[in-house]
Amino acid sequence: MSEIIQVTILGLALGGVIALMGSGLSLVFGVMRIVNLAHPSLIIAGAYVTYWGFKLWGVDPIVMLPVASLIMAAIGVLIYRLMFAREAKSARYSEMTVLLTFALAMMVEGLLGGLFTNTQRVTSPDYATAAFFIGDVFVPKGQLYAGIVSIVIIASLSLFLKYSRLGYAIRATTQNRDAAELLGVNVNFISVLAFAIGIGLAGAAGSLVSFVFSFFPAKQWEWIAMLMSVVVLGGMGSILGTVIAAFSLSIIAAFVGTWVGATWSTMTFFLALFVILLVRPQGLFGEKPELA
């Protein structure tokens, strides 16, 4: 019984971080239909910001989180203006973004690899390797803190989207871009804002990832399949669905890794992506597309 509790705790702790990693990707797709394959590489960029803040000045990764978020959000605005703004009304916008963000992912990986090499790095605050013990069960402090911070950020994002005027505008743009524009919403500004928030969330996730996982530029190719599994299972554009899918798959992967083998835990995400695309392509909380 203690083993089941232990594995569940580990799955829940990592689920929060994975949910935060996927929430920015889901938000960007929901508002602008951008399939951002570069999202994991931008998470890694945020991890490097935090890593160097810790290594050079000893700043705690959680304290560096707002800094990494703001830096990545500013980069997000620049990326959107350069790559996506002009083609936003194209009928094939989503298809185009797959190619554009794939190219962006390659460029970011190359830039990070050129600057920092492909050496694996990890931020190492004191709590990263410490744990709380409750009887026979232990709770890693690093994963616990990262999970709690992730949930706080996602909850804050949800409250912002639900109760603020900008949140209303973002949700209106998500539901129907043309109708929102007719009602007076500045969809161009909202698109820039939503993209900046999405990339800012990548920066926040990178800060937490920096002490939960080891990372290097090419790590993005492992994470993109995992994040796409979470986002597709939850429903493209649904942050609630992304959170539920992240926790569910993380717990299942933890049990698979414990009982079958660590090599197979990642396969949980790949298999989930394969099955959901066959059975329910719109995901758990996504809307079924209407036939023309």
Describe the structure.
The chain has 292 residues and is mainly α. The chain has one domain. It is 74% helix and 3% strand. The chain contains 12 helices and 2 strands, in the order ααααββαααααααα. It has a two-stranded antiparallel ribbon. Helix 2 packs across helix 8. The longest helix is centred in the N-terminal third of the chain and has 31 residues. It starts with a helix and ends in a 13-residue tail after the last helix. The model has no long low-confidence stretch (mean pLDDT 90).
Spell out the blueprint of helices and strands.
Layout: H1 2-32, H2 39-57, H3 61-83, H4 93-116, E1 131-134, E2 137-140, H5 141-163, H6 165-175, H7 177-182, H8 187-212, H9 220-234, H10 239-259, H11 262-265, H12 267-279
Antiparallel strand pairs: 1-2
Helix pairs in contact: 1-5, 1-8, 1-9, 1-10, 2-3, 2-4, 2-8, 2-9, 3-8, 5-6, 5-8, 6-8, 9-10, 9-12, 10-12
Radius of gyration: 19 Å
N-to-C series of helices and strands = HHHHEEHHHHHHHH
Give the CA-CA distance, first to last residue: 52 Å
Category from helices, strands and their pairing: mainly alpha
Task: Give a brief rundown of this model.
By secondary structure, this protein is mainly alpha-helical.
Essential attributes:
2 strands, two-stranded antiparallel ribbon, globular, 292 residues
